[in-house]
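Second opinion, please. Please look over this fold, written as tokens:

===
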Amino acid sequence: MPSIGSSFRVILSNRNGCAIITLMAVSLREFTPQFWSVAGATFLGFLGIGTVLPGLAPHVRHDLGGSDETVGFVIGIFSFVALGARLFSGTLADTRGRKNTFATGLLCCALAGAAYLAPLGLAGVYLARVLQGFGEAFLYTGAATWAIEIAGVHRSAQALGYVSSGIWGGMSAGPVLGAWVGSFEHAALAQTVLPLMGFALLVRVPERYKPHPYRTKRAWLPRSIIAPGLAVGFVNVHYPVVTGFLILHLSRHGRSGRAAFTAYAVVILFCRFFLGSLPDRVHPKNTYYTGLGFMTVGLLTIAASPPPVIAIGAAAILGFGFSFPWSSVVSTVLRQTLDREHGSAIGILGAFYDLFVGIGSFAAGAVSDHLGYASAFGMAAAALGVAAIIGWFLFPAGDHKVTVTAEA
């Protein structure tokens, strides 16, 4: 079994210095136009979600006369709805089809844009955020399961990498588009149109998956998914710390926060696109622990309040490490799961992500309030230590390419 270090050396070693471009070209040719249609529709769906974000709080506060507390409720209801929706979006993907689930998510996102435009005041905003929560949950679950269905479970990590690139690309470009269109109403219109464009892109894409005519009786939270879910959860405790406190923390030490966050996001986007296949090519245990190692270095370096250049580099290292644990865990779970239960597995793992991001947000706020911002980054690093312990029980000792596709 090759190590992750040898894999990086293979990727980076080339007499002409073009190995990474060659690897990308080969990877792109390996996937069908149907796959890229799914990835493109994912990008459009999340581009629409991201478009309204810059103007949402000002719209609620100034246009609709809401309080700061109202802004918090409007922002927070999305996560709770998405968490609940993930618990049955996977079942829908398994019993009604991946395409139907994906299309439902896109339509919910389009309806959210229409709700923002409706003359309903704050009620319209709450309705839109609820629809967005459902839409995001159904959109990701449908996209991920359908992409893996097309690519094959043996390339699940690479497929998830491309889907994640569409998500990060859409969520990164969305606020830029929202600021460019100039008003919240125009952003809401884009929120309506972009998912419909994604829906049109998928109309002619066939789905090979055939849902079973009967539903298998199983626990809503299988024991086999608890450890992977906890691993995913503890890895993502860092996310609300970075999004909520990175800029605030570094503003006291050279004001490098915005550049550091940009480096973090850009590295994640590029790594998931260019290096997303690594958990398929080497044992995912290697990519999982390598990712945790880089993340720990990045978090602890940021906690030490370094000079701007080092802070930006540490954020890039953190983003590099974060690019691998999710796909390493999910690809391992899917290889041990029946094809007809892939949607449920991805939905539950996504629910663990939402749950721990929410818990991490409250914990980071409390820790920062009492002990300072640096302590929140230390807390996130400690969570990675827990993820490392849980990871010891996740990965099979044998060949990780063995796939479960039929009833045992």
Remarks:
- Residues 1-17, 402-408 have pLDDT under 50 and may be disordered.
